[in-house]
């Protein structure tokens, strides 16, 4: 018997289980469905041919949303426009028949609580892709660390443009160090030209993405964002995170605006470094916190000490406070 998608009943059953239980192995799937091990393997091959299952770096297979699989199938056949157009109609018809199964099974995974932990790079990408495709209203991002990896911005650009194309608001907060990174500036120019907003600030607490009023995604480990993410749906926590985002956004400056000097003749980066110098922080800590290189921090610290006539970092901090350069 076949499903309206053209898939076998066994393939649909395995797909639903793979979506709801990303870490389930073949033996567990066979036990839960009552299917022979060989039939489970055949069903997974059938799904993999359509791009609905893909290998995970952590081992095993991870389920992919029908829309994502459709886009990849179409892209793979794009060398022949006519065939791609024909394939698009047929593929969309198949995938639409599976959308209800995918969303229902995906919701079962979310029902485990208002806070969900997702591990594995492929699983994280699948969750982010789903949220980007279904979000309505707004996407607000904190992007600390200065210069953003070129591979990350290149991958994010098409998704961001699709979000903007649906009429959603898109805002991103960077740190000052990102302004000096040309690939990041090019990415920001591309999305702002399409209607996005981007600002800069000296310090950001962590990486975070807020998807409308529905959920937020934060890293499990701020120092290693690839370790996993936490998907938050609790209304009270989301309210706090949104207030936190608005607090930082209201204090930031336009990303593409040229850096101006303060009344004291200090640039925004110099002011941030001076404040942290007065707080007794070391160059490596300041570098990591502001997203600028240690070499840049060392150069600015030396120039500030010279302007203050200070012979040590401690003396520079004391003089900056005495002169009212930092509060």
Automatic annotation (TrEMBL):
Checking Pfam families in the record gives:
GerE
Q: Which residues form the signal peptide?
A: none
SMART domains membership: HTH_LUXR (SM00421)
Spell out the InterPro entries in the cross-references: Sig_transdc_resp-reg_C-effctor, TrmB-like, Tscrpt_reg_LuxR_C, WH-like_DNA-bd_sf
| PROSITE patterns on file | HTH_LUXR_1, HTH_LUXR_2
In Gene Ontology terms, what is one molecular function of this protein? Answer: DNA binding
User: Which stretches make up the HTH luxR-type domain?
Assistant: 259-324
Q: Which residues form a coiled coil?
A: none
Top-rank taxon, per record: Bacteria
Q: Which Gene3D superfamilies match?
A: Winged helix-like DNA-binding domain superfamily/Winged helix DNA-binding domain
Output the GO biological process annotations, alphabetical, semicolon-separated. Answer: regulation of DNA-templated transcription
UniProt-listed PANTHER family: HTH-TYPE TRANSCRIPTIONAL REGULATOR TRMBL2 (PTHR34293)
Protein name, per record: Helix-turn-helix transcriptional regulator
Lineage at the top is: Bacteria, Bacillati, Actinomycetota, Actinomycetes, Kitasatosporales
């Amino acid at each position: 018997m076949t499903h309206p998608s053209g898939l076998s009943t066994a393939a649909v059953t395995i797909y639903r289980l793979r979506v709801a239980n990303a870490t389930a192995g073949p033996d567990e799937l066979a036990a839960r469905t009552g299917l022979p091990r060989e039939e489970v393997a055949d069903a997974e091959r059938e799904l993999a041919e359509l791009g609905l299952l893909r290998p995970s770096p952590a081992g095993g297979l991870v389920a992919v949303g029908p829309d994502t699989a459709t886009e990849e199938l179409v892209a793979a056949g794009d060398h022949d426009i006519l065939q791609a157009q024909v394939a698009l109609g047929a593929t969309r018809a198949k995938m639409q028949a599976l959308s209800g199964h995918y969303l229902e099974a995906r919701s079962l995974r979310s029902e485990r609580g208002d806070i969900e932990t997702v591990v594995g790079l492929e699983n994280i990408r699948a969750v982010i892709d789903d949220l980007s495709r279904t979000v309505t209203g707004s996407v607000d991002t904190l992007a600390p660390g200065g210069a953003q990896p070129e591979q990350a911005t290149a991958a994010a650009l098409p998704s961001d443009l699709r979000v903007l194309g649906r009429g959603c608001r898109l805002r991103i907060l960077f740190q000052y160090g990102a302004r000096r990174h040309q690939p990041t500036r090019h990415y920001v120019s591309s999305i702002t030209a399409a209607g996005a907003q981007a600002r800069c600030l000296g310090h950001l607490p962590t990486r975070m993405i807020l998807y409308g009023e529905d959920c937020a995604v934060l890293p499990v480990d701020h120092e290693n964002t690839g370790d996993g993410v936490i998907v938050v749906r609790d209304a009270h926590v989301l309210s706090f995170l949104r207030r936190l985002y608005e607090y930082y956004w209201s204090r930031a400056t336009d990303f593409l605006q040229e850096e101006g000097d303060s009344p004291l003749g200090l640039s925004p980066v110099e002011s941030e470094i001076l404040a942290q110098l007065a707080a007794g922080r070391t160059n490596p800590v300041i570098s990591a916190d502001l997203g600028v290189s240690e070499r840049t921090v060392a150069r600015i610290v030396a120039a500030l000490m010279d302007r203050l006539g200070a012979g040590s970092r401690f003396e520079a901090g004391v003089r900056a406070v005495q002169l009212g350069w930092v509060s």
